[in-house]
Design goal:
Keywords: Metal-binding, Oxidoreductase, Zinc. This protein folds into two domains: 2-134 and 311-344, Medium-chain alcohol dehydrogenases, catalytic domain (Quinone Oxidoreductase, Chain A, domain 1, Alpha-Beta Complex); 152-288, NAD(P)-binding Rossmann-like Domain (Rossmann fold). The protein has eleven helices and 15 strands. The chain has helices at 39-46, 94-97, 127-130, 140-160, 176-187, 199-207, 221-228, 243-251, 276-282, 297-305, 324-330, and strands at residues 2-5, 14-17, 28-37, 61-69, 81-83, 121-124, 132-133, 168-172, 191-196, 212-215, 233-238, 253-261, 285-288, 315-320, 339-344. The longest helix has 21 residues, at 140-160. The relative contact order is 0.16.
Length: 347
């Protein structure tokens, strides 16, 4: 099979012919239909993710067709079109049994702890507890675009912060996950303000329905947001994983507000100075979130199938395997609007 291999940090991926993956006894092998290119992949590419061992195949936002099943798989057969969360949980431990699969202590993470989906085929462990059937009408590129950013945003808003209709949602950073949070927040009946430093991204978000767009490079974005929202947001999503936006997200909340850390802190941002006086005096809640359990996919897919949210505008570029390197390098600077999805694995 063809795969894009990370052989050196910050270097172009090498498209190679590799052996097909071995099917786990409790898993499946998928023919990959599409795979998103995510900022988390950029963390792997830059060497800031501690799980990466070179050489390595990145890619964690994927969907595909089952081509092989393990002896212990009961729910899936060759030909099924499926999607998986990027955290593959064991399904048996206390965390999984309580519904918190994203905290599974023995989780498998394709693209990080094992080979990922920048490849024609991928092995998926624990298939019976992780795979979800794709709606027949869903474009594989859209399904792949859901893989990390949309599912993480959905769980952040509904599973962590419990966003309510009529509340103000502040989204700090309008990359893939930030734009997803904006679209989903609107679908949930919230009013949404987005904050970024890239005018093109802010214009794109407003074209897609954002109620307000704030350019953080001009003036005090926290003061501007608090003015627009009449005292601060009820919920803030930090979608970049950096100290400045995390601090601003907290300061943008009204009293009793909830902030969700969605962006992955890495490198110099692993430890951040935060305004804990604002947390104390405002009685704020801070939530961490990472991924979404497989059992929550049906609620999101139902929202999409029912026409309550159109996520197709997320997809900005459909690319070939050899173009993934350019997309990863683009994250070194403020990236253009929308997300890239690998749909051609032959070039």
């Amino acid at each position: 099979m063809k795969a894009a291999v990370l052989t050196e940090y910050r270097a172009p991926l090498s498209v190679q012919d590799l052996p097909d993956p071995v099917c786990p006894e409790d898993g499946v092998v998928l023919e990959v239909l599409a795979c998103g290119v995510c900022r988390s992949d950029w963390h792997a590419w830059t060497g800031t993710d501690p799980d990466i061992v070179l050489p390595h195949v990145p890619g964690h936002e994927y969907c595909g067709i089952v081509v092989e099943t393990g002896a212990r798989v009961t729910r899936w057969s060759p030909g099924d079109r499926v999607i998986a969360p990027f955290i593959l949980a064991c399904g048996q431990c206390p965390a999984c049994q309580s519904g918190n699969q994203t905290t599974c202590p023995t989780q498998v993470v394709p693209g990080f702890t094992v080979a990922g989906a920048f490849a024609e085929r991928i092995a998926v462990a624990h298939a019976d507890v992780n795979l979800t059937r794709l709606p027949a009408s869903m474009d594989p590129a859209l399904a792949a675009a859901l893989g990390c950013r949309v599912t993480t945003a959905w769980h952040a808003l509904t599973g962590r912060a419990a966003l309510k209709p009529g509340e103000w949602l502040a989204v700090w950073g309008t990359g893939g996950v930030g734009l997803s949070a904006m679209l989903l927040g609107r679908a949930l009946g919230a009013r949404v303000a987005v904050v970024d430093v890239v005018g093109e991204k802010l214009d794109h978000a407003q074209d897609l329905g954002a109620d307000a767009a704030i350019d953080a490079s001009k003036g005090d974005p926290v003061a501007h947001l608090r003015e627009i929202t009449g005292g601060g947001a009820h919920v803030a999503v930090e979608a970049l994983g950096i100290a400045e936006t995390t601090r601003n997200a907290l300061l943008s909340l009204r009293k009793l507000g909830r902030m969700v850390q969605v962006g992955m802190p890495a490198g110099s941002h692993v430890t951040m100075p935060l305004p804990m006086d604002a947390v104390y005096s405002g009685q704020l809640a801070i939530y961490g979130t990472r991924g979404m359990p497989a059992h929550r996919y049906p609620s999101l897919l139902s929202l999409i199938e029912g026409g309550q949210v159109d996520l197709n505008p997320l997809i900005a570029r459909r690319i070939g395997l050899s173009q993934a390197s350019n997309e990863l390098a683009a994250f070194d600077a403020p990236a253009p609007p929308g997300v890239a999805v690998i749909t051609d694995f032959s070039s």
